Amino acid sequence: MSGMCQLSALILRNAHVRSHFQAGRSPKMLKTERQDEILAILKKNKYASVQELGAALYASQPTIRRDLAQLEAAGYVMRSHGGVILRDERIDTPVAFRSSTKTRQKMLISHAAAGLIGDSRTIFVDASTTASFIAGDIRNAEGLMVVTNSLRVAEELADGAPEVWCTGGRLLRTSLAFVGNPSIRAVSDFCADIAFFSSSALGTDGIIKDYSPEETEIRRTVLRTAAKKVFLCDSSKFGLPSPFRVCALGEVDCIITDAPLPQDIEAVSRFTCTEGNGAYLYRRKDSDLGV
User: Fold this and answer.
1) Residue 213 bridge partners (DSSP)
2) Fewest CB within a 10 Å sphere: which of 73, 74, 105, 194?
3) What are the tens digits of pLDDT across the range 102-133?
4) What is the model's pTM?
5) How far apart are CA 177 and CA 111, in angstroms?
6) Which domains are assigned to the chain?
């Protein structure tokens, strides 16, 4: 069934609201009920316009826009072209669930990443679930400064050996990431020896992409100042689409994965691969990272 047909069915399903109205009862949903309905519609249709949502829920367009603004601020959706789509961190995959999926692969990747730190004194760890596993590998690292926009990383290292700098800012509940201008200003003040980051997707065009505009801006800011950049990417992200550009693959010094990179991904030829303990390290040929 097409998206429009599905929405039409939802409009018919909510026709009981009209009968309530005709019977003299208020058709007004509670805000939380309406927002739950919006998320349910998006789970089925992926995209819906403000007009379609208003018709399906018998709500005014200003009301729908306010709901969408709140859902976007909470990190559930992303408004686009007069409508809205679900973010990659979907309501049915909360942060605790995402942290528990592909755990073995993420731990292999993070362990390999921690092995690259060497004599580095300052590192940045982003709020991705993959990068957050690094915290467990560096809890006892004396003399290391860790800058992060991740609430989970800060909590994990709170009683550890590294000195921790947390960016602060607005907290995205879906990813437990601090974002916004305060966070951007904070990361701008540091020049990390190595920045460890992940994202939602690695496109076949060789572009690292993400669904979150806020987290994308944090990563872009960090990558502009970090001496070395390490991209952590489990194989489920190969070839996926995402709307926001983080950087080109050729701009990073190293890619760490749990499986070989597909050869049809652009710029792979600029890297040399070594495999060990289940992780694949792709070092850019002209980078001296880990040498």
Assistant:
1) none
2) 73
3) 678 889 999 999 999 999 999 999 999 888 89
4) 0.69
5) 22
6) 3-86 (1.10.10.10), 96-284 (3.40.50.1360)
